[in-house]
Amino acid sequence: MSIWFPYLATDRMTIRQPSLRGKPFVLAAPEQGRMVVRAASAGAVKLGISPGMVLADVRAVLPGVEVFPDDPAAHAQLLEALARWCYRYTPIAAVDPPDGLLLDISGCAHL
Q1: Nearest-CA neighbor of 47 among 18, 67, 25, 21?
Q2: How far is the C-alpha of 40 from the C-alpha of 53, rounded, in Å?
Q3: Is 22's pLDDT higher than 60?
Q4: Strands 25-31, 2-4: parallel, antiparallel or unpaired by DSSP?
Q5: CA torsion, ordered 80, 85, 90, 91, to nearest 10 deg
Q6: 93 in helix, strand or coil?
Q7: 66 - beta bridge partners?
Q8: Largest CA distance in the chain
Q9: What does the alpha-carbon distance between residue 40 and residue 15 come to, in Å, rounded to a whole number?
């Protein structure tokens, strides 16, 4: 089974800073001399913001958007922890970077 967490990075931020809940914000990182959105919260996505957009374009669409630095190592660590947690349900759980898990559910079809 494949599990996709489209808001894994932004949900992590929301848990760490509850004041962000429901607000549009993005995680950005430098790429080829410009800042690029790596992850967008559900609130930002509803307003037309998506990962891959240049931060200057995002600010043109949504001037008050909050921007935080992206931390890919922290997201990978969280994904690894989720995979380890899944071992209680399956003998094989693997990380599918950047925001997914693969679980072996063979033999579980009757459930």
Answers
A1: 25
A2: 10
A3: yes
A4: unpaired
A5: 60
A6: strand
A7: 25
A8: 53
A9: 15
What percentage of the chain exceeds 90 in pLDDT?
A: 85
Q: In the block, which residue shows the tokens 């679980």? A: 103
Number of neighbours of residue 47 by Cβ within 10 angstroms: 13
Q: What is the mean pLDDT of residues 11-19?
A: 93
Distance CA(10)–CA(66), nearest Å, equals 12
Measured CA to CA, the distance from residue 25 to residue 15 in angstroms comes to 14
Q: Per-residue DSSP letters for 49-88? A: --TT-BHHHHHHH-TT-EEEE--HHHHHHHHHHHHHHGGG
What's the rounded Cα separation, in Å, for the pair 88 and 70? 30
Q: What residue has token string 């898990």? A: 101
